[in-house]
Amino acid sequence: MSRRDITQYLFKDTSACTVLTPTEMQVKRRYELCITRKMDSPLTPDKEIVDFLMHGCNGMCEPVGKSQAYRDVAAITKITGNIALAGKNWYRHLIIEGAKEIYAMAMRKEDSKGAAAALDKLGKYTRCDKDDEAMDWSEMLPPIFEPSDDLTLIEGMKAIPTDELEARRKRLRELFLGLGSKAEDAQYEEVADD
To answer: Residue 31 in contact with residue 58, Cβ under 8 Å?
Structure first.
């Protein structure tokens, strides 16, 4: 069974995974432990996860070799994606929420210096202490179009050979000029409203 198939059984009860072999159950257990560890601390470096795997996940499963540990880390990263980016946003969120709580505590204790410091930090991390960056319209230049009679510049267009061009014009003139006597105005009928 491939590793991709094992991912279907992650975080499911072991009794529900009767199709997995004991070796695959070990892989499943390693993946679950490492994914949980990465979710708890998204900024954990891969080297720490490799060491964690090589030491048997702190005794919770069988130790693996270094090359297998790196293969597991690659598979786990494929499953979780780059959660380090989400981790950075999480820490920003924690800083902002912490500053709000400190501000609330300072206000309850009537500590104006503490409240001012909390608001200062809050302003820094939300960038409220800076003016909004105005768009520099002088940097925005309109596109410059150069007129050309070369049809090949337009994608998908092909030039008509000049010897055929006049023959085509003649056929089109005959077609559309000849319609003048055959064309009829449309007749409109008024429909009564019910």
So the answer is: no
CA distances from 99 to 87, 102, 112, 165 (A): 18, 5, 14, 76
Q: What's the CA gap between 83 and 75, in Å, rounded? A: 14
Alpha-carbon distance 15 to 24, whole Å? 14
CB-based contacts of 157, cutoff 8 Å, min separation 6: 151
The arithmetic mean of pLDDT across residues 108-115, rounded, is: 89
Q: Is the full-model pTM beyond 0.70?
A: no
Q: Under DSSP, is residue 109 helix (H, G, I), strand (E, B) or coil?
A: coil
Q: Which of 51, 53, 74 is nearest to 64 (CA)?
A: 53
- Please state, as a whole number, how many other Cβ atoms lie within 10 Å of the Cβ of residue 118: 21
* Cβ proximity of 162 and 151 under 8 Å: no
Q: Which residues of 55-70 are buried (b: 16+ CB within 10 A; e: fewer)?
A: eebeeebeebeeeebb
Yes or no: say if 7 and 79 are a contact pair by the CB < 8 Å rule: yes
Distance, CA of 140 to CA of 135 (rounded, Å): 9
